[in-house]
Amino acid sequence: MAKFDYRTIEAQEYSHADEPSVVILNERNYITFKSKGHFDLQDAQFMQQVASMYALADGIRQQAATSNKLAWFKDYVPYPLNSYWYEDGSYLLLIKQPNFTIPELLDNAKAALVSKFPAALLDDIHFERHAEGVEAQLINHGPVVPDNATFKTLAKFMADNQFQRHFTGHREVYLTPLTPDLAPAKLEVLIRIPIERNESSLDSGRFPVAEN
Q1: Is the pTM of the predicted complex or chain greater than 0.90?
Q2: Distance (Å, rounded) from C-alpha 133 to C-alpha 128?
Q3: What is the maximal distance between C-alpha atoms in the chain?
Q4: How far apart are CA 160 and CA 147, in angstroms?
Q5: CB 3 within 8 A of CB 76
Q6: What distance in Å separates the CA atoms of residue 109 and residue 101, rounded to the nearest whole number?
Q7: pLDDT digit string (tens) for 171-184?
Q8: Pairwise CA distance, residues 191 & 182, whole Å
Q9: Which residues of 52-75 are buried (b: 16+ CB within 10 A; e: fewer)?
């Protein structure tokens, strides 16, 4: 049986298009980690956090494949790493998990990784379920910096379609896996801005809308 692959089945939600679109993110599972700092592929602490998230996401997939406590299971490609960045300098790392996953899978994945990551770091990674609402999105090629064209294009898109920001931060979806040897120019990052729901704009047909 073929794996569930978000890159093809949920391609519109993880769009590589060069024009803005909107996603409506309903309730889903995540593993999350919250901290303060900045994005830096050469920062050992940040990259250890990133590595632990990737390892746990894959660990959950492995645990799910053999669990007898799930209602159902289908093998899948793990989802990409996301981050929310806030004005106070804090950030939230998160990776979406399939709806059939349960918190116990994270506990088991942590137990399998105790020799590879600090216990305090693993303890701060949690399993959560929530809905994030509506976000405007656009692909960004290369490093994400505050004054780049992607943010300007998204701001114009929001103004043209009467969308208001839900809060001042933004989300980054790393379509390129983050590794210490990754050249910044090779980054493919989906930038998302949380926005207030505007039904007339969402129903206008002027732009793609993906709901999941």
Answers
A1: yes
A2: 15
A3: 53
A4: 19
A5: yes
A6: 12
A7: 999 999 999 999 99
A8: 19
A9: bbbbbbebbbebbeebeebeeeee
